[in-house]
Write a structure and sequence with these properties.
single chain, mainly alpha, Farnesyl Diphosphate Synthase, 15 helices, globular
Amino acid sequence: MDKLKGYVKVMRIYQWIKNLIIFSPIIFSKNFFNPNDWRKILLTFIGFSLVASSSYVLNDIVDREKDRLHPVKKNRPIASGKVSIIEATFLFIFLFVAGLYISYIVDKGVALFTLSYFFLILLYSLFLKKMVFIDMITIAIGFDIRALVGAYAIRVELSSWLVIDLFLLALFLAATKRRQELIKLKDADKHKKVLSYYSLSMIDQIIPILTSTTLISYIIYTLSPKVNTYFGTNYFYLTVPFVVYGIFRYLYIIYNKDTFGDPTYLLIHDWPLILDIVLWGASIIALIYVF
């Protein structure tokens, strides 16, 4: 049982919450009640998530020595020795092959999107995470790939403003995480080389810029005549307060609470933030499908 828990932990299933972005196209495409599209999007989510988990396993294999020096990461199954390198290697192969096969069942293009994400994360783990700014941009591109693979699976087009806003939001989350790492980690550059290129003053200038641009791009999206015509409503702007509160709440947590700033951890542990996201999603669905 302990071994099974180790496998589940190294897969980082809780990180699958990021992959829920894959479902966004089925909402924004007005296909929410299309069962065939739901089948495709669910399979895409499962396949993509398994491949994403395989990248976490591979990353933990590569970084096991550095992780042993980290106050939190030292407890990861591979770094702590609970899961051996051989076991982790077989787990990686199984997750990668199974995920890619499921993605291929949906469509060859979906499999290619999923594979491109894997190689992006592979490059990130090997090289890109050591390059200042490129590390955060790579993470943000990964979020856009999630949305695009969902859109491709059901053959719909995403608004360019929505893609840009998601990119900026992901950059915002990455920047706040870097800030917390600089504050919380002793000799931060020894844990992550790229942290030696960042400074707290630099990050504290970047975060307000990303906060503003993220909000502005979302507001432009809600006010876009093309978007309002497509959805048949002029009231998308009513969802703006939820986005404003969500970003402000996240900033409050980052600046006032003792946390390493993992966006996924915060998302599943802060009830006001969870409630805000649920209300935002409900308001979007109501405006598109009810009013």
